[in-house]
Fold these 3 entries.
Entry 1:
Amino acid sequence: MPPDDKPMRADALRNRNRILQAAEQVFSERGPAASTEEVANRAGVAIGTVFRHFPTKADLLREIMKGLLARLVSDVEMLRRDRPPGTALFAFFTTLVAQAARQKTVLDLLAEAGTELSIPDAVGMLERSVDGLLTSAQDAGTVRRDVHLPEVMALLGAVCQGAVTGGWDERLQARTLAVVFAGLGPAT
Amino acid sequence: MPPDDKPMRADALRNRNRILQAAEQVFSERGPAASTEEVANRAGVAIGTVFRHFPTKADLLREIMKGLLARLVSDVEMLRRDRPPGTALFAFFTTLVAQAARQKTVLDLLAEAGTELSIPDAVGMLERSVDGLLTSAQDAGTVRRDVHLPEVMALLGAVCQGAVTGGWDERLQARTLAVVFAGLGPAT
Amino acid sequence: MPPDDKPMRADALRNRNRILQAAEQVFSERGPAASTEEVANRAGVAIGTVFRHFPTKADLLREIMKGLLARLVSDVEMLRRDRPPGTALFAFFTTLVAQAARQKTVLDLLAEAGTELSIPDAVGMLERSVDGLLTSAQDAGTVRRDVHLPEVMALLGAVCQGAVTGGWDERLQARTLAVVFAGLGPAT
Amino acid sequence: MPPDDKPMRADALRNRNRILQAAEQVFSERGPAASTEEVANRAGVAIGTVFRHFPTKADLLREIMKGLLARLVSDVEMLRRDRPPGTALFAFFTTLVAQAARQKTVLDLLAEAGTELSIPDAVGMLERSVDGLLTSAQDAGTVRRDVHLPEVMALLGAVCQGAVTGGWDERLQARTLAVVFAGLGPAT
DNA sequence: CATGAATGAGGCTTCATTCAT
DNA sequence: CATGAATGAAGCCTCATTCAT
């Protein structure tokens, strides 16, 4: 989401993206405490270039989060198109946990930065998307009607965090999600 | 668990405990990035004393974790004594989430330090305790037989992380746990 | 004083002047530590353009000084034309102090850059001009004969510096100059 | 003026003083833009030690100023004791200009830092001291009664600045001060 | 043993200057 | 010529750790 009042030069844009990718990697691996210098190295640019594009480390973190959240929103949209409404929400849980390593950044940042970083818009969009999934699932009868968005978001976050920090393997992911899905499903 | 080859003088032991308490507070509030100096201040000792007791910041963190995990183990034992076997596991989930703020340290540390810190013993003990809870619940018929320890631990961790980093209020804690409990319960 | 071996295109010259004006403003307000980038912004040109015209920040500073000194010289000439010879020197003092804010740049630069910047020609010209003022005043009998140019220049500089860094208001300017003028005047 | 709630260890105090001296030198020579690192080198301590004693560069500058101003105040007091009241003020002017190189720091800081640094107490004390000198001189009849403190302070500052940034030699100092003294003296 | 001063590597950020577009 | 992105040295400051008192 580069703010392009003026189109932005080709090379600058390429660097911007390289930096964003490098940052995503680095912060995923080392947590948000990783140094900006390392991001620069991994991106193959000088440290000054990172700061030209993102005047502050927090700006860089914020931008990564925006990107990740945007990607999640589009994942949701894709699922709504390609899956039967009754399973799309479950599929989203599964995807999310499977990608957890990538999502680590999102969660860590939400945790670490907390008050400082603020990207309510992006978060709000994701919530609206997931709400769509939930409603569809309830209409299809695969999720109980007394389940509401907040706990779904909470479970999404929890399970994702858990997967990341706990290092769940595939089998464990499946078994854990099975419990959650059973909990969401119709009462009988 | 002071390494007591030589008994350790009374005042030294008192300092050790003060430091541990202070550290728990400080790291809970500020995250593991908080400075050792602040721990020393809060404990009312000089920085050198902290490093005499815990040669490395990581050692200090590790020791806190051990303490927290030990406390969890004793929580579990207490629940086994005081609660009907069918609900003890659920009670433990509830307790854990409610105390999440305190547990923040545990999780953060697990996340942050990851590979560096390693405290398999303490974790193992907690796992054995929880396994007891699980088996009892299954015997009592309040938890499905095809639920196994790994996913229970996973859910415990996930839900705890979620509660902390998501800042769930009491209502949200209850609703989220309701889903999980439904998922653990008998299939109808 | 653009170095015009080749005449220089009209737009280039306009940029040169814009940069010079901007630089004068910026350095007056923020001191010589202000960034070249800000000069470029204020001038409405790109940073590269500033460095094309002035290969070094020091070059830019030097050029500003030359300009300011040249302006002072022409102020002196004007006073010699428009004022009675007995008061022109005093008038120059007064003008200078009143404009001190503008002159801040000159002085700061002299102070800050010291050895690095060197602009003997321009300073020499100003000295010759002021010498004219001094001689006239002495001929008119308003300044003592045993006062020489060096101390006049020194007082000029001192009073100007003082006015700038001390933030003298009008009343204080007047009272201070009154002392200096009394000191310069005939003995009885 | 170390704030000695607790007496302060001998070595710490020695370092503190070494740093202060080094800083005075460095900032005199290179201006307030000189690097803290250089101060550390000159003082023969590590950079961290400088920051332990003065948490901020501004704190260091402020402390130097306090010290210099305090020394000036004591200079004044000494003059009042050792000199006839009619000449003490003039002697102070002379001393000040002669030491200008040392005082450079004071003035530069006053100029450069302006709003940021604030040490009103120390400045106020100096003003009160100089006021004493002025009154004495007026009582002794060596300074006109219609001269007031503000312009004396202004001239002091101006002449000092001038001496520093202008690099006046002894002869020039004398001639310039002669003019000022004549201006302060009785109207004939 | 406790104290707290000293160390110095490392992090974030700024800015003069260079160079591809 | 102008543009503005890239560079990288350098500055300020923090903090884990060591060591003299």
Entry 2:
Amino acid sequence: MSQTVDRALSILPLLAEGPADLGQVADRLGVHKSTALRLLRTLHEHGLVHRQSDQRYRLGARLFALAQQAVESLDVREIAHPHLVALNEKCGHTVHLAVHEENEVLYIDKVESRYPVRMYSRIGKPVAITVAAVAKLLLADLPEPERRALAVKLDYPRYTARSTPDATAFLAELAKVREQGWATDLGGHEESINCVGAPVRGVDGRVVAAMSVSAPNVVVTADELLALLPLVRRTADAISREYSGQTPAKETE
Amino acid sequence: MSQTVDRALSILPLLAEGPADLGQVADRLGVHKSTALRLLRTLHEHGLVHRQSDQRYRLGARLFALAQQAVESLDVREIAHPHLVALNEKCGHTVHLAVHEENEVLYIDKVESRYPVRMYSRIGKPVAITVAAVAKLLLADLPEPERRALAVKLDYPRYTARSTPDATAFLAELAKVREQGWATDLGGHEESINCVGAPVRGVDGRVVAAMSVSAPNVVVTADELLALLPLVRRTADAISREYSGQTPAKETE
DNA sequence: AAGTCGTGTTGCATTCCTTGCAACAGTCAT
DNA sequence: ATGACTGTTGCAAGGAATGCAACACGACTT
């Protein structure tokens, strides 16, 4: 749309391949050296481009600063909320969104079930970290040593007969979750309540949040709930895509 | 230098603060909405800007991709080499550059001493990980659990009486190194050889490489070598700055 | 339902900004 | 010294970006 800007921005991917000098940039842009010079200067003033000691140009530090600032200002909850609502409208059950912070897993959003049931969860409240599906998803993504360090530090309360009993079992469960890309809690916290969950990933592939659908088995059986898994995963993936700023199909055209 | 590009690039830091709609962007740029629209469109085509579901604009995924590709294409050794040579010319001793990879620490560059001595090191060769100054620097930067996991897995050969004896001592040494920002190896590998080293950091502050100066004490005493510390640190910092694309003083003007 | 505000979007004429050229200034090798 | 190579600057001409005004669309209010 804007020729000048278009040309200037085309320099960035070019430099991402590696440092280049003025002539190379001008050639690959198909413009005169002086034109390339002025574009590079403008990019340089904004810190997007850095001139190294051999006079060649590379991408500059500002780019990293921008990228970092962008992720920090991103609010998963804001982006995820409409998706959670849509999911709730499709299946009717309680939908949770949670994040991992300081050795705790916290609910940061919740859409209530449309069935007349209550669940003991509250936004801002730490979840039962050893059994909840969202906790498993978030912790499964940690590097192995951190995962292990955390697992041995935790208490393993026996909420029910199906609660995770100890660190060994927990680590095994996390490995499974990491492998399959989704998690469940089948009566591990409250005997009659089941959950299925899936991870939300950031642009670097790391898990930044986790969502789950919960329902008491007086409403649906565990098997029926598990049938929702594809839908849950698709929702989580949609959130991931939007969160990481990728438009589903447009990106590569 | 180029008004159009200048305006377009000014949008990026603006969006880094958080999502904004067309009107806000136009206002803060001091241009007509239609102008802002066309600039945003161009940025969008290049993927630097992403349009979220509520029509507001944010920074896009391409920015992250570019930043990542840029760091991958960066070669520490290439950037560091002239600095290593300069350091060698100033002090005359052997200078090493090393990186951490797969639970090993490898020398990736070396400038030979100008004194007639030999050192048993070779580019590409794993270093004595429990005693070398460069190893301490690289491992000290790991997250605590990984550091501990690695420390207990290592063997602690007694090269000399001053070699690190066990994991406990090693972890204590790493904590000290992490704290002070530099490291030494005083006869821990070979009785008569001392080293001082300092870390090279990337744009995110993490240690990406480590450099050291080594000399046998038949040439200089440990104290004399330690007197070089400020020089070594300054060199490492210079490499860090150049590697992370920050121009020393210009950046904040 | 009509009306109104608030968005984002498009065509178009004017004008200013970008462009390529050619000449210049360095640096390095021959 | 001389040549070839880089990066750099002034200038005129043309084209591209700009702001305007009008339009389209949806969300609210009345």
Entry 3:
Amino acid sequence: MAQKNLFPKKLPFRDDRAPIFVIDGSSFVYRAYYAIRGHLSNRKGLPTKAVFGFTQMLLKLLREMNPEYVVVCFDAKGLTFRHDMFKDYKANRPPMPDDLSVQIPYIKEITRAFGVPILEIEGYEADDLIAAIASRMDRPIVIVGGDKDLFPLISERVVIWDPMKDELIDKKKIKERYGVEPQKLIDVRALAGDSIDNVPGVPGIGEKTALRLIKEYGSLEEVLNHAEEIKQKRLRENLIKHAGDALISKKLVELNDKAPIPLEIDFYRKRPVNTLKLRELFLELDFKKLLKELPATKTISYEQYKLVLDFEKVKEIVEKARKAKVLALDLESDTKDPMRGKIVGVSLCFEPPKAYYFPFRHEGLEAQKQLPWEAFSNLASLIEDSSVKKVGHNIKYDLILLARYGVTLKGLEGDTMLASYLFDPTRRTHGLDELSEELLGHTMISYKEVTKELAKEESFARVPLEKAKVYACEDAHVTYLLYEYFWPRLKEETLWKVFTEIDRPLIEVLAYMEMAGIKIDTAYLKEFSREIAEKLKKLEEKIYAVAGERFNINSSKQLGYILFEKLKLPKVKKTPKKTAFSTDNEVLEELSLHHELPRLVLEYRTLAKLKSTYVDALPKMVNPETGRLHTSFNQTVTATGRLSSSDPNLQNIPVRGEEGLKIRQAFVPEKGFLFLSADYSQIDLRVLAHYSEDETLIKAFWQGEDIHRRTAAEIFGISPDEVTPEMRRMAKTINFGIVYGMSPYGLAKELKIGRREAKAFIERYFERYPGVKRYMEQIVAEAREKGYVETLFGRKRPLPDINSPNRTAREFAERTAINTPIQGTAADIIKLAMIKIHQVFREKGVGTRMLLQVHDELLFEVPEKEIEEIKKIVRQIMEGVVELKVPLKVNLAIGRNWAEAKA
DNA sequence: TAAGTGGA
DNA sequence: TCCACTTA
């Protein structure tokens, strides 16, 4: 919203006083509403198309014209003097649609927030107000609008600017276009009439004839006076017969300039933009792009940030903090990995804008100025005091770091990162800095900025205390402000339940799992790596021999050259970005029918991937202190509510094929322990059965049938015992496709059949499972109406494209609408089970630890003696965690490694 | 379909 | 940044 004083449009006025820009508000509201295709709504389902279009127009005007005087005119409610005169005036106009009228208050608020005065007077239409301003304000006037009805107002002193067409219409233009003075357009319209506004006019006369007549006689009255002279019979008769109508019409279309408008120029003065208010409105309306363009206006003062260097002061602050409503807390460490770093300092904020930084382990010249480590216990006692509510941003990190110092955080009120995620799980990131920028309008100091004078390998511990203070205090401060932002919003929605009953309690469970880690057999992996290296070497030589030259097989570019240029193999398809020809699995599979090279490359790739991603990478990530692998479970990444795992990702460890199993064998329990794997059987399909209430599906699950076999029997129209393995495989793919929201196209590709055939399969499926079809139609309709979908527990996912005019985008949103409630509900179910299991484990004080979650599977490390007890607990909790219309079923397996525990 | 990782 | 590949 740069307020540069540029007048890019040359305004054709002799008068060089600043013009008044008079905006035809009502016409823009309608234009935005009807002109923008598709549908736009915010996360709550409020339609926003007109607000958006209007806002863009206003922005364009303010940017390009930078007006000193400006006003938006709106139609007032109720009848105008025109109705008194002619009761059918505008009788053909339908009333304002509901989904437009709800937007009007927002449009007005935004206008005010931009500092633009609003004019609205009972009994008058916007056009009349504009006419009054144009004729009675002695100033240059720019009417902002595009409506032809306003053309008669144009004069030496009045022009019209249409920001949408970017067209400036002045007197000269009108004369060129119509050949008459602007005011005469009234007479033209009176003769021609207007069916939209129900202005009668004279039958048989259109704009062309009207113009000709007015040009000839000068005015409507003169035309009527000379009606007798007109040669054409029909025209003459009509003019004489309908002279009265024509005169009434003139009264109707004549713009009334008598409206009691404010005459003081000060009323029209542009006021400053209220960025805070705009931000609030844009946030509510979900105008993300506009939000980003708002300047960061909020300046947070760092003046009240205190560096605490004195033990006595620590005690004082801790005592004060105990009485705080909520304490925002942030730990500074020297690594990103909470399983490795040490605590360098602690920041607190409980009375914003005050905040405190407690440095403990900084390095360098100032080290001796810091707090003695004993002071940390004072903070620890505060952190362990469950009566003091804490919030943090990504608090799991702090939880783990603290736990390594033997400190257990109690009284967790929540996590602002999680709050942001629940509020909109499709956001790209939930980083403190981005949220601060976008939601608070405050630009934070970046980590990069703070550490820029440091050498590459140096950590936060090397940051000078003053600088560290500002950075750390700002983190705690902004966290507090985000807490104030999100909490009321979460409480307002169904999200509060998901937050307090699922995601918040899960934080601690995940922290435990990450801290537990998992053991891998590094010696075994080393040996395996050597074996693969050998195989790769042989394959490599063979590939070079077949290709006739040496090249980098890992480079898809070089491989593409060999396959398509040198060997002239058919180019099957392009890469998704269309920048090159694809060399992916599917393509190589097909090409292997023509040549032996693709097969070899396929084999090489599988092995190379296995080696680099798993066999070689995993041992490097073993924590030297614990001797185990500690993944990080991210709770705020996926759009559906699933978890994700990284550093390393333990949710995509291979399972298929011989080599895959060999890698799973490297994951082993501690001595004296066994692995117990518990996975939900067909949880997605069971959730689908619950949602759809499909009788066949529900019955199949209650009878414990093999669901893919049942599906095969249904779609092939045979009995279950007649189903061949091939049929079952196809049915399985279809079930899979339904749950993952696969398109008919995707299904065709997966089954390697024609698209029509795939479509026929899907149709057959819907015939046999009509409830599923009903569910899909219903959920898509609901999504269209609300603009979002939700899980059984109220977790939401916005679907902005659900009404998009772009078919691809819309269909994608539709598949998402079908899939998210299913996958998200399944994710909620397993999260709930994890929370309960963790709780029972702690109550019973068992030695068993939950190690991993892989979407529908949990992996435990169980002392041999506890096996039977734990099996019982796990099954009972997982199967009983919610009651659906179908039973939940869990498969348990025990093993001395992860491969065994899968069978 | 979605997410993470490795290699160029 | 793009591509390919692993899991669910």
